């Protein structure tokens, strides 16, 4: 097999392994805290970590980005689950609550990603001296 094909399969392998780990972490958290608000926290925390990862990933092994970013954090976050939860809120409670959930999650995700980038830049500057 050519090295390019082998390299692609390595990426597929690390993304798959990371996806399993991230999905199991999300499953564990949502089992411990069965609430639509758990999904919000998962997505916001995941976005914070993705923001941080994008700053530090150039310093890591070349397979770290697909493993951690696409795999672990891609499996951990769930924006499809977020839509299902919003639909549940719209059907079971006041519509405004579903709207707050939809907008709050998106705003929280964007702010968390930006904050993760800023925090990682600050920390890497301090570590670099």
TrEMBL record:
Regulation: Na(+) is not transported, but it plays an essential structural role and its presence is essential for fluoride channel function.
Pfam families for this protein: CRCB
GO cellular component, one term: plasma membrane
Binding-site positions, Na(+): 74, 77
Subcellular location: Cell membrane
Principal subcellular localization: membrane
Keywords of the record: Cell membrane, Ion channel, Ion transport, Membrane, Metal-binding, Sodium, Transmembrane, Transmembrane helix, Transport
Topology with respect to the bilayer: Multi-pass membrane protein
Gene Ontology MF, one: metal ion binding
Membrane-spanning segments: 12-29, 35-56, 63-83, 95-117
GO BP terms: cellular detoxification of fluoride
Superkingdom of origin: Bacteria
Catalytic activity field: fluoride(in) = fluoride(out)
Family: Belongs to the fluoride channel Fluc/FEX (TC 1.A.43) family.
PANTHER family in UniProt: FLUORIDE EXPORT PROTEIN 1-RELATED (PTHR28259:SF1)
HAMAP family, per the entry: FluC (MF_00454)
Record function comment: Fluoride-specific ion channel. Important for reducing fluoride concentration in the cell, thus reducing its toxicity.
Name by which UniProt lists this protein: Fluoride-specific ion channel FluC
Gene that produces this protein: fluC
């Amino acid at each position: 097999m050519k090295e390019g094909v082998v390299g692609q399969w390595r990426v597929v392998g690390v993304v798959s392994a990371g996806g399993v780990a991230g999905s199991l972490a999300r499953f564990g958290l949502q089992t411990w805290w069965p609430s639509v608000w758990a999904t919000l926290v998962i997505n916001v925390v995941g976005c914070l970590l993705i923001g941080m990862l994008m700053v530090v990933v150039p310093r890591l092994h070349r397979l770290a980005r697909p493993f951690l970013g696409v795999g672990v954090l891609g499996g951990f976050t769930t924006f499809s689950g977020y839509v299902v939860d919003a639909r549940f809120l719209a059907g079971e409670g006041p519509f405004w609550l579903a709207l707050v959930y939809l907008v709050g999650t998106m705003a929280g995700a964007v702010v968390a990603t930006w904050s993760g980038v800023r925090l990682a830049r600050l920390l890497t500057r301090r570590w670099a001296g």
